Amino acid sequence: SLSAVAVNNRYVVTGSRDETIQIYDMKKKIEHGALLQHNGTITCLEFYGTAHLLSGAEDGLICIWNTKRWECLKSIKAHKGHVTSLSIHPSGKLALSVGTDKTLRTWNLVEGRSAFIKNLKQNAHIIKWSPDGERYVTVITSKVDIYKLDTASITGTITTEKRISSLRFITDSILAIAGDDEIIRFYSCDSQKCLCEFKAHENRIKDIYSFEREGQHVIVTASSDGYIKMWNLDLNKIKDVPSLLCEVNTKARLTCLAVWLDQASEMKENSDKAATLSQGNEDEKSSIVRKNKVCRTDKSVKAAKKKREITPEKQKSEAPLQKKKKKQNSSS
């Protein structure tokens, strides 16, 4: 079964109990290959921008991947037990992780080393940065502790009746919390008060995701009942129950959820509406440049598929070839 899923503008990656990370190219709609570095169930995956992916697993490792060549840049022995969750700061300079060794660890991603270790009274299974990076939250069973970045101290605690399975920042100060019941609750990080709650599913909610598109806030929920539902959230009327936009019965026992947005086509639609002819030509040139870049990386990916892992010697031999191609492309 799948244990983790993450998306960026091009790829979807999934982690599983089979100890592999599978990559899917959403632009070409093809399987892209597999990453084999962990010895244990993959527990968490998170992209940073378009160039990096972090993975954590039950082997206690956190791996940092370059998503251009899909090579492991660094493998860190992060926890003595399992890595249960990780989260990257919006700046990309820090990451937080929690594990079954009752620690919360801060990582300096610039230097790839441990920056700080905080002992927890119990094992936390979720860690998450706020969008502005000013605070972060940990989840221990049914309790959410809210921390401030500058003091690294707890500023408030939210407690629910049942175990929390998923948590999402809707804004910098509003949390959506889902757990081992059918109810989604919105909480204020400042007052720790419940702003709204509503029954979303007929069974426990496994994951919750949110995104903003064309000024509309959308929440997506997945449940053990097999349903994926999309809800429209009006932030100006946060106390009102969100309206159901659509639902689909997958007839599967859902375990995790992520939303991939076709941002390239959305950007193209927007530019077509607003852009002048000259701007349209510029967009066309930039998209051609992007296509050229993609073509260059495809060869190394095919090599990675065949060997499942690229050897350092292969990387060195491919690097000068790529430089030549870059020169040819620039001269053309």
From TrEMBL:
Keywords: Nucleus, Repeat, Ribosome biogenesis, Signal transduction inhibitor, WD repeat. One of its GO terms (cellular component) is nucleolus. Signal peptide: none annotated. One of its GO terms (biological process) is negative regulation of signal transduction. The keyword Lipid biosynthesis does not apply. Residues 272-332 are annotated as: Disordered. InterPro entries: PAK1-Kinase_Regulator, WD40/YVTN_repeat-like_dom_sf, WD40_PAC1, WD40_repeat_CS, WD40_repeat_dom_sf, WD40_rpt. WD repeats lie at residues 35-75, 76-117, 198-234. The keyword Transmembrane does not apply. It is found in: Nucleus, Nucleolus. Negatively regulates the PAK1 kinase. PAK1 is a member of the PAK kinase family, which has been shown to play a positive role in the regulation of signaling pathways involving MAPK8 and RELA. PAK1 exists as an inactive homodimer, which is activated by binding of small GTPases such as CDC42 to an N-terminal regulatory domain. PAK1IP1 also binds to the N-terminus of PAK1, and inhibits the specific activation of PAK1 by CDC42. May be involved in ribosomal large subunit assembly. This is p21-activated protein kinase-interacting protein 1-like. It comes from Buteo japonicus.
